[in-house]
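Hey L., structure's done. Input below.
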Amino acid sequence: MRWAITVPNFGEYADVRRTAALAADAERAGWDGFFVWDNVHETFPAAQPMADPWVLLAAIALTTERVRIGTMVTPLARRRPWKLARETVTIDHLSQGRLTLGVGLGSPPGEEFAAFGEDPDDRVRAAKLDEGLDVLTGLWSGERFSYAGAHYELTDVEFRPSPVQQPRIPVWVAQTYPNRRPLRRAARWDGVAPIHSDPETMFASPAQVADVAGHVAELRRSTAPFDVSVPVVLPPDPAAAATLADEYRDAGATWLLVGGWSFDEIRARIDAGPLAR
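Output:
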């Protein structure tokens, strides 16, 4: 199991230089990844300073050499897929093939979609997510590409260069537990990132992760590696944290994405290093 830090792209983390330096600290401390959120409008408890996640990832790519980087997660329905194709390939080259793209519907739909006149309906966002992934992979191929969907249409376009990573940049799909439909989507890609639908709980338990991992395994038609990437907030007690991490590993987690709101708390967690290798 590998270990990553995940932080918002707003609040204290909107300072791009400071957050990029934090990622470099994580790499020196032995962490395996550093992921940032992809929000555009955060107003709780008040309007927050915010950094563009792709500019932030560019800075992180230039201050690190080894850690895997990416978004957790990009709401593809509010992105132009062809613009995202350019951004992801650019970061993939800048990082020398270390990018993972996390995708999902986006939350909360009111702030992330409706506030800007975008349709917040789950079914519409899901359809745009699936079509957007088709468009991304077509453009990542570097070949002539056309597409005709309900939401996107491209005619005879060719994007160069292709990503460093082949056959493509890895894609992790978010799932809000216990919803099953996102697992069918995730099974077609490279990983799943489960959270819990209860706002009081937020994080999937080891038993729920085992349920997700087992269900995706039944759906998969590929023998390629597949990641179960679990966002968590670990308890401060080292023994309790180690026990919980072991439970997630035994449940099938391949990555633990350790997060938190406070910059100082995240720095302390980074300095302590991953709990196990």
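The two ends are 7 Å apart (CA to CA). The CA atoms of residues 173 and 192 lie 5 Å apart.

-- N.
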